[in-house]
Amino acid sequence: MASKAKRINHYSEAVITAIIRTAGYLSVLFVALISFFLFREAIPVVFKIPAGTLLNTRWYPIEGLYGLLPLLLGSLTITLGASLIAIPLGLLTAVYISEIAPPWTKEILKPMVEILAGIPSVVLGFLGILVLSPFLRETFNLPTGLTALAGSILLGWAAIPTIVSVSEDALNTVPASFREASLALGCTRWQTIWGVTVPSARSGIITAIMLGVGRVIGETMTVMMVTGNAPTMPAGLRTILLPIRTMTATIASEMGEVAKGSDHYQVLFFIGLILFLFSLIINIVAFQISARRVKRSERLLS
Hints:
By secondary structure, this protein is an all-alpha fold. It has helices at about 1-40, 45-50, 50-55, 70-100, 105-115, 120-140, 150-170, 175-185, 190-200, 200-220, 220-225, 245-255, 265-300, and strands at about 60, 65.
């Protein structure tokens, strides 16, 4: 009986290992197929449309104007604005949950953060249209509340849960001996947090920020609903109170109306390729930083 049970366990482990290995290979295959499809549809743009047209400041496909600068700068504006909101709030929240909050508060805040992460982007956009946009229009006396500021606030809200969760995990991996040594040397609790704990979790916090920024760059429905969808060039600091359009919103709003194989169709895929490369770079950097953190933790524990 013992030998039979051992064989069953061996076969079960072999099956589970094979399933996990297959899932990993399929993930790599899917990413490779997506990359191939994007490159196949987007690369012809480089040979068919002059670089001067793609680097133009006007996006008006009906007249053959495919200037990507307003869309690229619009995405960067939204990303920067959302990052300025999400990074400090997310980091401070993570520090509070990990280092300061009593246990009963953690039991409330952790589920709330997870619930916030699960809110669909279309719901955030709906709330932005009904609540945030009218508030911004009345507060700043604007013609419309559908502006870059509305998109930045909502995307910052959407990125906060990612930053909080990953940053808190990084803070929790800091050995307790670090805090105890700092307190034993006469440092205050705040000096220990900002001088010892946070710097020790720096790699994990940077990973959290990178993942949060990646979430902002790839967001579609929220920015399409609350930013006004106007492909205009930024005009300094005033841009934050003006309608704007991002690359993701352009693909979502126009892909269903273009003829397959047309210049417009291929330019939209070229925009998708740019977004794909941005997201890929961000995830690779985050992975490298995370791997470095793991190696550092292993060295400390050894």
